[in-house]
């Protein structure tokens, strides 16, 4: 697979904290987690791909391990990559899952 299975396991464990139901889907050459058909987070190799509402993008992009998602060789709107050092702790990972869930709910 083109994604880090250990990261997938960590995400699955964090998602158990939420009452919502999530599904997994292969996307972007990796694995994504969706809420009601909307992507919240995904894994591409060792990076976390996160959907973030527009008004929080600038703040997140100032963080050391966060960069615009450039899967198509151009920055994608409301998507970021977070390198592994940016979500070493479960609290950090949970932060990105919550941002992704917020984004998904805003699109329903």
Automatic annotation (TrEMBL):
Residue ranges annotated for the TfoX N-terminal domain, each copy included: 21-104
Protein name: TfoX/Sxy family protein
Gene3D superfamilies associated with the record: YgaC/TfoX-N like chaperone
InterPro entries: TfoX_N
Stored Pfam families: TfoX_N (PF04993)
């Amino acid at each position: 697979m083109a994604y880090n299975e250990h990261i997938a396991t960590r995400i699955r464990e964090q998602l158990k904290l939420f009452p919502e139901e999530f599904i997994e889907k292969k996307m972007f050459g990796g694995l994504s987690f969706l809420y009601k058909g909307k992507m919240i987070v995904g894994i591409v190799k060792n990076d976390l791909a996160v959907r973030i509402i527009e008004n929080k993008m600038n703040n997140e992009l100032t963080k050391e391990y966060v960069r615009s998602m450039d899967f198509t060789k151009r920055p994608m709107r409301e998507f970021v990559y977070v390198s592994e050092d940016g979500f070493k702790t479960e609290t950090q990972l949970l932060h990105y899952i919550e941002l992704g869930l917020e984004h998904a709910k805003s699109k329903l």
